[in-house]
RNA sequence: GGAGGAAUGGCAGAGUGGUUGAAUGCACCGGUCUUGAAAACCGACGUGUCGCAAGGCACCGGGGGUUCGAAUCCCUCUUCCUCCGCCA
């Protein structure tokens, strides 16, 4: 959620930025500022009434003590009048506050100046292209969903039996590969300074709202009405919310968190060839990294996160490129996002495996996440990124490394996997 | 699931209707003293909001109510603790 202060002080920058999202927000911004003016006015006049009431009440107390009951009763009548006025004023104020909040929730984050203009994924900027030749495959190379059968990696049919479509069941060496990747990612992240957390997979409404999943994306999350809880679409949600409402000392920063969780996404309406196999599923595993930083450091930290994620893909020896998302493709809450895509050799297409974003104060405003700074208490910046999402990594590993006698996995995984290559099942 | 108890500032812990935004202790910060440190002493020390400021207002788990006035009384929700039951 944007700050009204920002809308007032940096109106032109905000409007120009939102233009990159193809959003003409001039009217909305003006309305918000007007509502905020109204809010201040109402609050000030109401406070004046309350101040009078407080003074009179204290006088009444004194009068009673000295036995001057008649005078006290006269004042009581006056206070009762004030009470009526206060009740009316508070009712109005409440309405204005609600309108203000609703209006602010409609506005997405302001894109950073580096964000390219554009309306769709086509317009994303290739920030770092894959430097080499894209690998070519041997004849008869298979896409990962076929390899999954040959090698017994996962089964979507079994998932249908237990649950429904889009819930893969990893089996045998496939399940082991999954566990190997999770451990590898967590080890690398903790070595880079991130503290490991294993958070809850269900979150309450306040939590989902603070990181921006609510109110605009409720359709994306699985919801449990009996307990009013949501299954997390990403570990970002519980991890970032661990610090909701905190007021940190600058010395505690940056806070760096990592966590492995399954992620649940409804992905309503997504069907077809592009979602075959592991390309898009309702439940998948992901290791996430989160940072809470000083405002002036957040873009340096964003670069560091990008470099870190890149190093993981380097070690996995997967061909990848980095995109800087354009205004039209960027998430609602983000100010600047880098997407990592690995090359799926058998499908001949790029698959997104990580998204690294700086939210600046957009989340921390809802989180009420602040630090004690020299200029007073200020909102922190929040950032997060996948390091990494598993299914498409697995798809690319299978497809890119297939050889006549098996699938040779990158060296970093050998220890975790207990072997060098995956072998066909009988 | 059943029965009790509790929720106050960074922590501990007073406070049952009227200068209590909140005693006291600890921690933290500034200072005095000291070669330095410790101890001792002095001072400052919650958050938000409105205001140029002085200062006002709100906040004692959340929400609602009673009252001229609520941390203090009532209702409700949540969380935690103890005991019983159930259970990975």
What does the model show?
The protein has helices spanning 4-9, 11-19, 26-65, 69-106, 144-151, 156-162, 172-191, 205-210, 236-241, 298-315, 362-367, 390-400, 411-417; strands spanning 125-128, 154-155, 169-170, 195-197, 202-203, 223-224, 229-231, 247-249, 255-264, 283-293, 320-324, 336-344, 349-360, 370-373, 376-379, 381-389, 402-403, 406-408, 421-422. 43% of the residues lie in helices and 22% in strands. It has two domains: 4-106, Serine-tRNA synthetase, tRNA binding domain (Helix Hairpins); 121-422, BirA Bifunctional Protein, domain 2 (2-Layer Sandwich), CATH 3.30.930. The strands form five sheets. It has an eight-stranded mixed β-sheet. Strands 5-7-6 form a three-stranded antiparallel β-sheet. A hairpin with a 2-residue loop joins strand 17 and strand 18. The protein binds one RNA strand of 88 nucleotides through helix 3 and helix 4. Its EC number is 6.1.1.11. Pathway: Aminoacyl-tRNA biosynthesis; selenocysteinyl-tRNA(Sec) biosynthesis; L-seryl-tRNA(Sec) from L-serine and tRNA(Sec): step 1/1. Keywords: Aminoacyl-tRNA synthetase, ATP-binding, Coiled coil, Cytoplasm, Ligase, Nucleotide-binding, Protein biosynthesis. This is Serine--tRNA ligase.
């Amino acid at each position: 959620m944007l700050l009204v202060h920002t809308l007032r002080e940096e109106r032109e920058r905000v409007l120009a930025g939102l233009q990159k999202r193809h959003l003409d927000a001039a009217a909305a911004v003006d309305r918000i500022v007007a509502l905020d003016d109204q809010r201040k006015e109402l609050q000030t006049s109401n406070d004046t009434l309350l101040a009078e009431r407080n003074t009179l009440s204290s006088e009444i107390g004194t009068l009673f003590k000295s036995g001057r009951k008649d005078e006290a009763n006269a004042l009581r009548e006056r206070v009762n009048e004030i009470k009526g006025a206060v009740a009316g004023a508070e009712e109005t104020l409440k309405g204005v506050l609600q309108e203000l909040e609703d209006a602010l929730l409609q506005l997405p984050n302001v894109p950073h100046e580096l964000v390219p203009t554009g309306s769709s994924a086509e317009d994303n900027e290739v920030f770092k292209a894959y430097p080499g030749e894209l690998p070519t495959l041997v004849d008869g190379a298979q896409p990962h969903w076929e390899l999954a059968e040959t090698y017994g990696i996962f089964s979507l049919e079994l998932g249908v039996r237990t649950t429904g479509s889009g819930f893969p069941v990893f089996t045998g060496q496939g399940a082991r590969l999954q566990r190997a990747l999770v451990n590898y990612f967590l080890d690398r992240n903790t070595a880079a300074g991130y503290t490991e957390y294993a958070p809850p997979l269900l979150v309450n409404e306040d939590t989902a709202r603070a990181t921006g999943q609510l109110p605009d994306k409720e359709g994306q999350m699985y919801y449990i009405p009996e307990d009013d809880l949501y299954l997390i679409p990403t570990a970002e949600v519980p991890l970032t919310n661990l610090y909701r409402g905190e007021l940190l000392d600058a010395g505690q920063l940056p806070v760096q968190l990592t966590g492995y969780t399954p992620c649940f996404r409804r992905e309503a309406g997504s069907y077809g060839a592009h979602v075959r196999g592991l390309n898009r599923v309702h439940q998948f595993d992901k290791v996430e990294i989160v940072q809470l930083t000083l405002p002036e450091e957040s873009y340096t930290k964003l670069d560091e996160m990008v470099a870190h994620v890149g190093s993981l893909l380097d070690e996995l020896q997967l061909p990848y490129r980095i995109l800087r998302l354009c205004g039209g493709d960027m998430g609602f809450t983000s100010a600047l996002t880098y997407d990592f895509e690995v090359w799926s050799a058998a499908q001949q297409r790029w698959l997104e495996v990580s998204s690294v974003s700086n939210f600046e104060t957009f989340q921390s405003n809802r989180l009420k996440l602040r630090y004690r700074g020299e200029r007073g208490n200020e909102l922190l910046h929040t950032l997060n990124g996948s390091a990494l999402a598993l299914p498409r990594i697995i798809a690319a590993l299978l497809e890119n490394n297939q050889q006549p006698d098996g699938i040779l996995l990158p060296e970093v995984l050998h220890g975790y996997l207990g072997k060098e290559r995956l072998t066909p099942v009988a």
